[in-house]
Amino acid sequence: MSTRGASTGARVRAARTERGLSLSALAAAAGIGKATLSDLEAGRRNPTLDTLYAVAGPLGVPLAALVDDERGAVEVGDGDLTSRRLHVQHDDDVTTEVYLVRVRPGGARTSPAHAVGAHERLVVLSGTGELEVAGHVVELAPGTQHGFAADVAHTYRCTSRVELVAVDVIRTPVRPPGDVERPQRLEGSWGTTLDSPAESE
């Protein structure tokens, strides 16, 4: 049992309990096996990035609420994508997370839907690729940025011979335990349809 795995598991269990969800209910909502969730909560396995996002969505919390940040920057990754958290800020109505994202050449990764009302803004530093959200696809190139609603599945692809590197800013509305109402879109909503580079803020 790793210290990080145990810490993450405890946070998942606490969030689930606060929301009155059973293991079966959360596992079904997250699209993972009950045994997988049980092992995660018990700290018997280190969850993948996909699993963390899959669980965070139904719980209505940002990734930062589940990952221990006491040691500074946290890096998680599996397969084609690595994400390193650079900063997290908790305000009364929103949690803002900043990540450095890397997608290996030729790689692709589909991220599960984040918490309801979550938005992302991706700023490309190097490499080229594609971002697909709700059937909309935009090209990624150095210096471009794109905002989108992240409470639906979205895919990052690297189409260059070098890795795609980007800064990803995720804003998640604060949702009190037991709140089942769909939160209002954040002020300055980036929308479900992807921005074009010219429209980016």
TrEMBL record:
Keyword vocabulary terms for this entry: DNA-binding
Pfam families cross-referenced by the UniProt entry: Cupin_2 (PF07883), HTH_3 (PF01381)
GO cellular component: a single term: cytosol
Region (Disordered): 174-201
HTH cro/C1-type domain sequence ranges: 12-66
A Gene Ontology molecular function term of the record: DNA binding
Keyword match Ion transport: no
Matching InterPro entries: Cro/C1-type_HTH, Cupin_2, Lambda_DNA-bd_dom_sf, RmlC-like_jellyroll, RmlC_Cupin_sf, TransReg_Diox_bact_type
Domain of life: Bacteria
PANTHER family with a match to the protein in the record: HTH-TYPE TRANSCRIPTIONAL REGULATOR, METHYLPHOSPHONATE SYNTHASE
The protein, known as: Transcriptional regulator with XRE-family HTH domain
